[in-house]
Amino acid sequence: MTVYRKALLFTKGLIYESKNGYINAAKQFDQNDVSVDVTGHVFMVTGANSGIGKEVTKELASRGGEVHMVCRSLERANAARDEIVKATKNEKIFVHIVDLSNIRSVGEFAKSFSESHGRLDTLVNNAGEMVADWRLTETENLEVNFATNSMSHFVLTESLLPLMEKSERPRVVNVTSSGMLLQCLNPKCFSKEKPNNFEAIIAYAQCKRQLTVLTEHWAEKHSSVHFSCMHPGWVDTPAAKRGLGDFYEKMSHKFRTPAQGADTVVWLCLAEKVLSIPSGSYFQDRKVSMKHLPLATTKESKRDRSEFLKCMKN
Ligand SMILES: NC(=O)c1ccc[n+]([C@@H]2O[C@H](COP(=O)([O-])OP(=O)(O)OC[C@H]3O[C@@H](n4cnc5c(N)ncnc54)[C@H](OP(=O)(O)O)[C@@H]3O)[C@@H](O)[C@H]2O)c1
Fold first, then answer.
1. Topology of 2-313 in CATH?
2. Among 66, 192, 231, 291, which one has the highest count of C-beta atoms within 10 angstroms of its own C-beta?
3. Could you read off the pLDDT of 226-260 as tens digits, one per residue?
4. pTM
5. Is the shortest distance between the CB of 146 and ligand 1 below 6 Å?
6. Where are the transmembrane segments (predicted)?
């Protein structure tokens, strides 16, 4: 089954997720969708100093938005902020330093942001990476891929929702990955035991499946907020270069630019028509896409889903 899923995902990737996939899809895009002024709107983007997150921040800033960049390195965050302010002439770009793999500090940051800011309209859970070696975080003893890609965004979103729900039409956009199509949800959301056959790509794909399931869960629970998740395609970024190894070496000429990868995130943040698409949907290139490959048996049972949600909450 894994071989079948990988073969199908690779073929789908070549056609739809590559640079050519973007160029073909973009022929159908309506640029009026994103020709909006968002002065006064408040956005938060995690992993905003690089790749897709940086492009998203720049696009939101260029339309007048106030953007809060959540990054782990002050130096990289300030360099990206300077570049964005220079390009957009928008000074309302703010840096917050949080290592998302440290869950306690994510919770503390969300609490202090909620106490000191009266408004947050849109949250983009973008930060993520594939850490090659199995290790536990020092603070909470969580497997590091799980802490960075899943638990951090769970805690950040849950903690910020009360503030966001005060806004008129709040949105949460989760950057997942088509890699999740390889994985069925594992209800035991994490383990402290090192598996015999640890594969970073599987750990990463499981996290992205978790974020997709969380998107659906939040959509059911919070009807006043619009939730979406998306796959950016194969995008030439530091995370892709570090995480994909040989695949990146052989295929990078087919990878999209960060701006192309960011396009659907920007559209999900800005387009009016997004709000009439059911909350909880998964997107690729501005279109609702399937959350499971045909015949791939990756759909979780209700029981597994509720066990997973219990595991996240505990
Ligand atoms: N590139 C692709 O082909 C592809 C495909 C599918 C999905 N995605 C997803 O797209 C999202 C953005 O990635 P990207 O491709 O744009 O890569 P990128 O340019 O390397 O950006 C990743 C961002 O996440 C930040 N980050 C990673 N771990 C963090 C932590 N512990 N605390 C705080 N920030 C952290 C990075 O910070 P530093 O700069 O400090 O490292 C960086 O700002 C990720 O969720 C990724 O999984 C990418």
1. Rossmann fold (3.40.50)
2. 231
3. 999 999 999 999 999 998 889 899 999 999 999 99
4. 0.97
5. no
6. none
